[in-house]
Specification:
585 residues, TIM Barrel
Length: 585
């Protein structure tokens, strides 16, 4: 599979077009079975030197990617109907291991993560499916979609045949793949192809690994066409800059198949977003809008209309469905935060504290049934008896607010590794609130993506010891527990970091909106206990997408965790603001 990459100037906004190498002389869309009609299927998707075939008839894939885990389940049907109305016939989706198996032996395929329901919905709407189960998927996710508990093994070699990794993959595939087998084409389902891993040619380091993945899928019953994909660096085609539609037109004119990555990007809610390692570390924003034909909130873009018109020219004799009506977007009245809970008062609701002579990285903390901490913040506290120079080296991953007796004295991050600690008599508490800003999603160093404090912190060149460690993963159970805390009326000058509570009133059927926080510095927004994602005043993203299905009719509780500065007012707008491109260090 060749990857053709089309970019515009917006940071992190690009569209990948995956081209199958086969060239076609004819196109015929083979419909899915309807009305309970049983169709005998013998010959699935196949590729030869000139074309794809399905049931030995020429077949062209007009595909697009929509990730179920980035779209509220209530909107799955809407987004897939919009895909169908654009003239596409195939849905492609990644499967995120880290979300489906948050702990060893604990699997989640319910509600938002009900992959079977998503695939059956695609079939109901007349779409074929190309499944991309990984185990590594990249997709700008934290650790490329691999679960962080893998990193508890200090010798772990991700994406290799290292036994600790292959045993974990086998455990995951034992749960996932049997549920996918009945949904394959030759068994009456919509899955016409399955991708092996993702872009392994770009970072290959084990010649036996892809053979292991192939065997792992086939031995569990995967029998449809197997695919792989990679970047232009490891395949013959290069990137293309310019207008997407003219490129797709030429692809279709030549009879080739196409997949749009993304057709609809959606949002990386919560702490899903990963980061980039090169040339320097940068965290990804929560939006996965991707400059796709369908916007983050499901709006039609100019690209959508142009592609729909283009596809209609190549789908002569096949009428595309009517375009679904767009959902209303609402600019709700601002929410004024009226209650305040300092971080220090919230510590009693965390998992911990844990005592340790030396710092313990996030993944090796004895939390979550000893599976470690995956996301969020970790607080490290110790006692000091003098001032001097505090050095972090390269041991803070990724960012730490530093306090003495809970008064802020400075910041550690990749570019700032030294701080002056004021002199004073007696014992004082030194606190480091360390944030995991997102494990990088690709590269040769995935094995090194441990977070929190990953080594010693030095005061006057002497390693600090005897830490109390609090896990602040900020899972829904933690946010729910905060309602039992002793919140205080918002003072004129509240302390930071703190949680701030307000209310959004949404009468009638709630609509989509966009949360904006002018005057706030950096933190996380929770709506009715749901983590919308992180915000940061430096941008580029200035609004967080809040889908209507996340809201109740009537009162909705908003909690903002703010690290350093708050305006105490939360704005709701009816249009997004993803900002301009910027290279921020």
């Amino acid at each position: 599979m060749v990857v053709l990459r089309i970019r515009n100037s917006h940071k992190r906004k690009c569209v990948f077009v995956c081209l199958c190498v086969a060239v076609f002389f004819m196109y015929r869309y083979l419909g899915l079975p309807r009305g309970g009609q049983r169709i005998i299927r013998k010959f699935g998707l196949s590729a030869n030197s000139t074309q794809f075939t399905l049931e030995r008839q020429p077949f062209r894939i007009l595909g697009g990617s929509i990730h179920y885990f980035r779209v509220p389940r209530a909107y799955w049907r809407d987004r897939l109907m919009k895909m169908k109305a654009c003239g596409l016939n195939t849905l492609t989706t990644f499967v995120p291991w880290n979300l489906h198996q948050p702990q060893r032996g604990v699997f989640d395929f319910r509600t938002q993560l009900d992959l079977e329901a998503y695939i059956r919905l695609a079939a109901e709407l007349g779409l074929w499916v190309i499944l991309r189960p990984g185990p590594y998927i990249s997709s700008e996710l934290d650790l490329g979609g691999l679960p962080s508990w893998l990193l508890q093994d200090g010798s772990m070699r991700l994406r290799t045949t290292y036994p600790g990794f292959t045993e974990a993959v086998d455990m995951y595939f034992d749960k996932l793949i049997p549920n996918m087998v009945p949904l394959q084409y030759k068994k009456g389902g919509p899955i016409i192809a399955v991708q092996l891993e993702n872009e392994y040619g770009s970072f290959a380091k084990d010649e036996h690994y892809m053979h292991f993945i192939k065997e792992a899928l086939q031995s569990r019953g995967i029998s449809e066409l197997l695919l792989t994909s990679d970047s232009h660096n490891t395949l013959k085609s290069g990137g293309v800059d310019g207008d997407m539609v003219s490129t797709v037109r030429e692809i279709l004119r030549r009879g080739m198949s196409v997949n749009l990555y993304m057709f609809h990007g959606g949002s990386s809610f919560g702490f899903m977003s990963g980061g980039l390692a090169e040339p320097s570390y940068k965290a990804f924003v929560p939006s996965y809008d991707y400059d796709a034909p369908l916007s983050e909130a499901g709006e039609y873009t100019q690209k959508y209309y142009l592609l729909r018109d283009l596809h209609s020219q190549f789908n002569k004799g096949t009428n595309s469905p009517e375009m679904p009506v767009l959902q209303h977007k609402e600019a709700y009245e601002p929410a004024i935060t009226y209650q305040h809970l300092s971080l220090w008062d919230a510590l009693s609701f965390t998992e911990g504290p844990f005592k340790s002579v030396k710092p313990v990285n996030m993944e090796n903390l004895p939390v979550n049934n000893r599976n470690g901490q995956s996301y969020g913040y970790t607080l490290y506290e110790t006692t000091i008896t003098s001032g001097g120079i505090l050095k972090s080296g390269d041991n803070v991953k990724d960012r730490a607010l530093v306090f003495v007796n809970r008064s802020y004295i400075g910041l550690f991050m990749y570019q700032h590794t030294e701080l002056a600690v004021p002199d004073a008599k007696g014992q004082r508490t030194l606190s480091l609130l360390v944030e995991n800003c997102g494990r990088v999603h690709r590269g040769q160093d995935l094995d090194k993506q441990r977070k929190g404090l990953v080594g010693d912190i030095l005061l006057n060149n002497i390693p600090l010891q005897d830490f109390m460690i609090y896990s602040l993963e900020m899972k829904p159970s933690f946010i729910d527990s905060l309602y039992q805390a002793s919140w205080k009326t918002l003072p004129e000058t509240p302390s930071f970091p703190s949680f701030f509570m307000g209310q959004l009133f949404a009468y009638g059927y709630p609509s989509d909106t966009f949360v904006k926080l002018p005057g706030w510095e950096k933190g996380v927004v929770f709506i009715n206990g749901i983590n919308l994602g992180c915000y940061w005043s430096i941008g580029p993203q200035q609004t967080l997408y809040l889908p209507g299905p996340f809201l109740n009719s009537g009162i909705n509780q908003i909690i903002v965790f703010e690290e350093q500065e708050g305006d105490y007012k939360i704005i709701f707008e009816d249009t997004p603001d993803l900002g301009m491109a910027a290279d921020i260090q």
